[in-house]
Amino acid sequence: AGAGAVVATGPFPRVAPAPAVRSCHRRRRPAPSVALNLAGGGGGGVPNGDGSSDAAAIRTPNDVFTEVELNEIRAEIIRECSVDDDGDDENCDGEYDGPLGSLLRSKLLNALLLVFSFGFAFYTLVNVDAGMTRGWSQQEIAMRVPMDAWSTYENSLAAKPVFTKTVINVVIYLLGDWLSQTVFRGADVLDFDAARTLRNGFIGMCFGPLVHEYYEFSDRILPVDVGVNRIYKIFMDQTIYLVVKCSIYLMAVQTLSGTRAKEAWDNTRGRIADIMFTAWKFWPLVHCVTYTVIPAPHRVLWVNSVDLIWNAILATKASGEPDGDGEG
What percent of the chain has pLDDT over 70? Predict the structure, then answer.
């Protein structure tokens, strides 16, 4: 065909390149169906409207396309590669993401969650002395804020112990699960399942009042002022309490993820022994500190602080992945 002539090449009319027509030499590999139209489906020619075939019209990978053709290809790619109902760009083998692809949306959502969470925590901390810092130097503010934040925590603990401990529990569970998916795996900080992290936060909220009541009950039946009771408390923590809490956690994680109750129970029975052996390498030494050094009102805070590491381990175990390699 001569310069500027229209050539039939499937669904897209082709304009033969001419000096007066601007062309683009950088060509993106088209989506599968577009490649079929441009290359004749791997056969002996491109079907014309009358059912015949024009072998001369077949485009090779090195051909040049005009701007009009490229715009048509881009439009077809967007149609072919739009996100389907389950969020996968299955037509494009992950190579052509829609304009609002699932990966981009996930990263954006995760970034917003992190900015909001850490921003709120930072704002709360630096404003603990709001209205009192007028005339203070930066050094005075830096020295006073940590002490006043601790005083605020103690006042809240005395006034609303269950609420305060529950809030701390939620924060620890959220942070522990996020760390297990990102930092402990060496992954990007935005590469985490936000729904899973929020589910763990919900479980932490449910556990908060239960943990508070357990330690109150433990102190009533085994007062720590009797030395031998500390050994009994550690034994009770590492047997009855640990088995019950970990079993509930594993069941809750799986049930909230959509697993059927029977299957979740079978999975829990299969994993609980491994978790118990892991816990026995970790918690007895921690509880030696819990029942000897830490005052009773602050035991939940101490245990929750250590829980930051343990919950990351537990999140990995709950997912069935190797330690440090996934959620637990």
Answer: 62
Count of alpha carbons within 13 Å of 131, Cβ hemisphere only? Answer: 1
Given a cut of 70, is residue 216 above it in pLDDT? yes
Residue whose C-alpha is closest to residue 297's, from 172, 160, 157, 164? 157
Q: Are 204 and 240 in contact (CB under 8 A)?
A: no
- Residues 272-293 have pLDDT tens digits of 888 888 889 888 888 888 888 8
pLDDT of residue 103: 73
- Asked if 69 and 14 count as a contact pair (C-beta separation under 8 A), the reply is yes
Each domain of the chain, given as residue ranges in start order, spans 6-92, 160-319
